[in-house]
Design goal:
15 helices; single chain; Leucine-rich Repeat Variant
Length: about 280
């Protein structure tokens, strides 16, 4: 009986995941035909802005519900990984971020953080990371912050699992609403800044400065960069960023020749006036 049930689960998984893979391939092909990325909220990307138009090229609620159910009924780590990857990719669409939340998908994915298999836990963190680009989703994801902090502390230094946790904490730190949940992990973060590699020290920070990011999150990230650059000036108007190494956050956000400068240049064409004004403040400091 158990073998038949396992076979049925694997068969269902093959159908659902196969459909998800075809969807992802179709999305890439369709994206290539459409040409350049459209404005925020109208094309695939990590943002969420419920007030903006949403692309019609999305997985429907039924397919997403099947993926979420699959996570609940299977113990196969390979199936779990693939389901989480598909859910993570689907969260590139803002409408799917809302659908997954409404289907109670956040709690199901969050439950995978207790899995003892690092790869499964990593894929769950990646999915929550993409889903956290939605303010309403953050309100539910915040209950896992303490658990994520513990995972970051216990994971191997510079491991993919540790990086996945740091990416999620980075997104959840854009507002000050949940900083108090991370206070006890500050010693760990300081250790990572000292001992970690460059990608560990600044995980996915530059991804926040993109036209596809939710406007409120983007503005907070820009204000952070503005304040950082302003405070790196001394009284005579000269910069002090030469004191910092190339793998520091100061170097990343305050050098005119870094990828961050390219991000700012593209944001000058952002449709939101306040975003453009904040970019100009950074460029003219």
């Amino acid at each position: 009986m158990g073998e038949r049930r396992g076979a049925a689960v694997r068969a269902a998984a093959a159908v659902v995941l196969g459909a998800g893979a075809c969807y992802c391939l179709w999305r890439l092909a369709a994206g290539g035909r459409r040409g350049p990325r459209a404005a925020a909220g109208t094309a695939p990307g990590p943002p969420s802005d419920n007030s903006t138009p949403v692309s019609t090229h999305t997985m429907d609620a039924d397919a997403l519900q099947k993926l979420i159910h699959l996570l609940q009924v299977t113990d196969d780590p390979l199936i779990q990984e693939q389901a989480l990857i598909t859910l993570s990719n689907s969260a590139a669409f803002s409408v799917n971020q809302d659908i997954i939340r409404n289907l109670d998908g956040l709690s199901v994915i969050g439950g995978m953080l207790s899995d003892c298999i690092p790869k499964v836990k990593e894929k769950a963190l990646n999915a929550l990371n993409n889903l956290s680009m939605n303010i309403k989703n953050q309100e539910e994801i915040q209950v896992y912050i303490t658990q994520v902090c513990r995972s970051v502390e216990s994971a191997s230094l510079n491991s993919d699992l540790q990086l996945a946790g740091l990416r999620l904490l980075t997104n959840m730190s854009v507002t000050s609403d949940y900083h108090h949940k991370m206070i006890n992990s500050i010693p760990c973060f300081l250790h990572l800044l000292s001992e970690g590699t460059e990608r560990t020290q600044v995980p996915s920070l530059l991804l926040l400065f993109d036209t596809c990011i939710n406007r409120d999150i983007l503005l907070r990230a820009l204000v952070f960069a503005t304040n950082l650059k302003k405070n790196m000036r001394i009284e005579d108007g000269t910069g002090i960023q030469d004191q910092y190494s190339e793998d520091s956050i100061f170097f990343t956000l305050c050098r005119d020749s870094t990828p961050f400068a390219q991000k700012l240049a593209s944001l000058l064409h952002h449709p939101d006036t306040e975003v453009k004004e904040q970019v100009v403040r950074i460029l003219t400091q």
